[in-house]
Design goal:
DUF1599, DUF1599 domain-containing protein
């Protein structure tokens, strides 16, 4: 697992760096997004990845990698929005937004390390396209939970689904960055 931790830290730093740069450009303008809108934004990104995987042709000069980065960052934004609720304005500073990113990324990463231990790094034998499918499945689950007002009978909530989506996207980034 030492390689895994190092690889995770590397791809997380790539995602965080882009998040920080976008904060400089836009500030935390995403604070106005309701969690359902964040879910839909992640859906757009995952659907584009699947489209690129199945068609093999892209019309816009961005590939799969930036979409996985966006899923990671929107997943963390989703966790922040669930915790704080959405706002009518950008009610936090860039520094607070970075601190919250780090807090929720740490929680998400710790969940992955625990699951990775129990599953014995099975994700390494999976195809990137399977991560895409799993993210899309988690999105449909999340939309269903959201349509029920966040209530579940026996399933994990929206937050756990966001964390899983982030981790699947990080797996994809690791494979893209380091190879199969």
């Amino acid at each position: 697992m030492p390689d895994t931790k190092e690889q995770f830290e590397k791809v997380i730093s790539i995602c965080r760096e882009l998040y920080a740069k976008k904060l400089k450009d836009y500030g935390p303008s995403w604070r106005i997004m309701r969690p359902m809108s964040v879910t839909d934004q992640i859906f757009i990104k995952a659907n584009r990845i699947r489209s690129l995987e199945t068609k093999g042709i892209r019309m816009v000069d961005e590939g799969i990698r930036p979409e996985f980065i966006a899923i990671v960052n929107y997943g963390i934004i989703g966790l922040i929005q669930l915790a704080l609720g959405y706002a009518d304005t950008t009610d936090i500073t860039d520094e607070e937004a970075l601190s919250l990113y780090d807090k929720y990324m740490t929680q998400t990463k710790e969940l992955m390390y625990a699951k990775n231990h129990d599953y014995d790094e099975a994700w390494r034998s999976m195809r990137i396209s399977s991560y895409t499918d799993l993210i899309l499945m988690k999105l449909y689950r999340t939309k269903q939970i959201e349509s029920h007002g966040g209530e579940t009978l026996v399933s994990e909530g929206v937050d756990a689904n966001y964390m899983d989506m982030v981790n699947y996207a990080l797996f994809g980034l690791i494979k893209l960055e380091y190879g199969e």
